Amino acid sequence: MKEIIKQRIIIGLQYLRDSLKWVAFAVISGVVVGGVGTAFSFCMAAVTQTRAKNPWILWLLPIGGLLIVGAYKLLRDENSTGTNLVLSSIHSGDSLPLRMTPLIFISTLITHLFGGSAGREGAALQIGGSIGNKLGMSFKFDDKDRHIMTMCGMSAAFSALFGTPMAAAIFSMEVVSVGIMHYSALVPCVIASLVAHGIADYFGAESELFPLDDVPSFAINSAVKISVLAFLCALVSILFCVLLHQTEHLYKKFLHNRFIRVAVGGCIIVALTLIVGDQRYNGSGIDIIAHCMNGQVAPEVFLLKMIFTALTLGAGYKGGEIVPSFCIGASFGCLFGNLIGFSPALCTAAGMAAVFCGVTNCPISSLLISFELFGYAGMPYFLLAVAFSYMFSGYYGLYHGQKIMYSKHKTSFINKMAK
Q1: Which of its termini does the chain have fewer beta carbons within 10 Å around, N or C?
Q2: Which has the closest alpha carbon to 155: 315, 34, 308, 3?
Q3: What is the pLDDT of residue 94?
């Protein structure tokens, strides 16, 4: 009996030691990555404001692209696959080079300064992942613990940039392997996310919030409308993923030289902007989302945002796809709401959640980010939109490094990479 009690005490002390270890290192990760993420957030705001005040700077986009390619060539990181490398490192155990942090930091700022159509979460995941991985190496963690530190860093950076700590904590665990979540990383990711959010909030980094007013009562009729919207958003998410990957493929097929590719891509974006007549599709698209929440959208907005983003990222400019996917979902949802006469603001929010889920294959994160961005009043609508979008979006995704472990329709182990 004494021996059993002794063993239980030893096991309990080991659990306590491990718990305290992860709390401490999660706080460190949150502070370090949260600080870098907050600085990046302020820099993003500054370059976006600079471009808004100086629209002529768009003409320099091809030059900005050359600077990006030159920086990657100078640091011998030309073949970096960005966020895919971060996800693959968690599967394979490969280390992430710390040089990813300054490279993606600066190149994303250049893309936004000169008018490329891209988001910022790609930078967040790469900055957080590379710093987290480096912290794990510095603390001499083994491969499995270093993977947790990588996810901690991803959560912290996402939280600092987006101001959505709940979704950030879960997203880094959910996006790696669809159907399987590494719950061993839950406490570290939650703490790192909350600490990073606290740092961003302390220094006054702004979060994008879109509170919903006058949400319609949930009934069978309204549920059917949102379900139809979710199905259509799943198709939109597939189209966006295919367009992104095929555009990159075509660029590489016809323009082998990276410098020529990015310069040509920049010229195409400049030409399209002149044809459109304004710069609403340049940058991340946050302003479009704000207009959609007020029920204002043109029919072609969601498609043009897809095209601008695919042409920008496919050419070699840096950034992310998630905020553009928000913009695409918001504009499509608003259009749907206006066409059928059903709460354009609610359809905007549900469309954002549905397209985000479709392109990331992350239903839990999609639901949480809906609550953080729009509040809980639209909960049943978000729940339906996310569920149906996840079911009908197939096995497409933004990241080829993402593994689909289980089928979306059966309890079958499939273990395939996202298309």
Answers
A1: N
A2: 34
A3: 62
